[in-house]
Amino acid sequence: MTNGLIASMVLAIWLYLLAGRGAFWLARERDDGFPLGEGPWPVVAAIVPARDEAESVGYTVASLLRQDYPGEFKVILVDDQSGDGTAQIAREAAAALGASGRLTVLPGRELPAGWTGKLWAQHQGVTLAQNMPHLPTYLLFTDADIVFASDALARLVAWSQAGGYTLTSLMAKLRCKSLAERMFVPAFIFFFQMLYPFSWANDPRRATAAAAGGCMLVRRDALREAGGLAAIRGALIDDCALAKKLKGHGPIWIGLTERVCSVRAYPAIADVRRMVARTAYAQLDYSPLLLAATVFALAVIYLAPVALAVFAAGLARILGIVAWLAMALAFQPTLRFYRLSMAWGLALPAIAATYMAFTVDSAYQHARGRGGMWKGRAQGNVKGNVSELR
Question: Closest Cα to residue 128, out of 68, 48, 53, 69?
Fold first, then answer.
């Protein structure tokens, strides 16, 4: 295959990504237009699985209990056998706000076979919520490193009710301070939207389904109809697996936000590697063939433009440069969202190559029996309904 043919193919791929994949790169699906609403305000229960989250859980609990929500709102924190005082810090955060009565700390039971740790903790929280004196209409699934603006819940509920959504999810804005975070976090969001264009996920006519586990407002009755969390109990990429289930019972919605933020830090490249390697091979359904195909696709899409721009000549070089610039252009809206320099767009090939290495490492860790490693648990051999990204 000649350089010219390769260059034409690569440029055609980027033209398709820009024009034919749901305009994912424009990052237009956001909560900026969420109305505050005037009610009615149904009962909501937040469910927070927490395993050794002493550094962040106090901020999460405090932000939830500070919600300016006119309806009844309770917080259930499931302490998943933490050894660092997570439960006590959560109680102290609630007491400091005079809101101890709105926080329930549930000691997590031993993890049974066939469940991932997070889903088992969430399942216990759901069971408790279903026995509340006032049955919640919505369940807010969130993580113990997520902080909410005071109006976030009210806007979520109003938007969910207006659209009749079974699931409304916001992609929490990730911390982006260290060099490693600036290098990899925006690209993570960019790749996520490329794989699961939000406009397609939000379209009831399309099969695409996606959610972000840091903030998912779920209609309790729809979750029950979908089989509950037991239906996805083995999913490492639990948020998108849940979105796929719930989309079969009604419309879903996902978008970006600045009202919901993660405070989890990734100070070094090794921290990002562990985060990606935890689920990357699960995304490929633990298939060596899909791994090889993914590595090849990443090389063609992200590395070939650079190789052509540097080593080819004539028209092939020009097309390679155009493809590289198209790639950098596509990355700009995400970079603006994270308030980073436009120059990071030109570095996207190198960033993608590193993610490629992380994905291969994910397969290697799985082969060692350490797949899905999180908080001391290796969960990569639990297959269940593993299906989507994250």
Answer: 48
Paired sense of beta strands 146-148 and 252-262, if any: antiparallel
Measure the CA–CA gap between 310 and 288, rounded to whole angstroms. Answer: 31
- pLDDT tens-place string over residues 326-378: 999 999 999 999 999 999 999 999 999 999 999 998 888 888 776 555 555 55
**pTM beyond 0.85:** yes
Angle at 299 between CA 294 and CA 305, to 5 degrees: 145
Task: Copy the structure tokens of residue 279.
Answer: 């689920």
* Orientation angle between helical segments 3-20 and 304-311, nearest 10 degrees: 140
List phi, psi (to 5°) of 209. Answer: -140, 135
Domains and CATH numbers, the chain: 3-24+273-367 (no CATH), 28-266 (3.90.550.10)
Measured CA distances, 234 to 117, 209, 241, 380 (Å): 9, 18, 10, 9
Instruction: Select from 16, 57, 228, 6 the least CA-distant residue to 139.
Output: 228
Q: For the segment 94-105, what is each residue's pLDDT rounded down to a tens digit?
A: 999 999 999 999
Give the pair of three-digit tokens for residue 17: 């990504």
Strands (E), the chain: 44-50, 73-79, 103-107, 138-142, 146-148, 167-173, 215-219, 252-262
pLDDT digits (tens, 9 = 90+) for 167-199: 999 999 999 999 999 999 999 999 999 999 999
What per-residue confidence (pLDDT) applies to 1? 60
Q: What is the DSSP letter of 109?
A: P
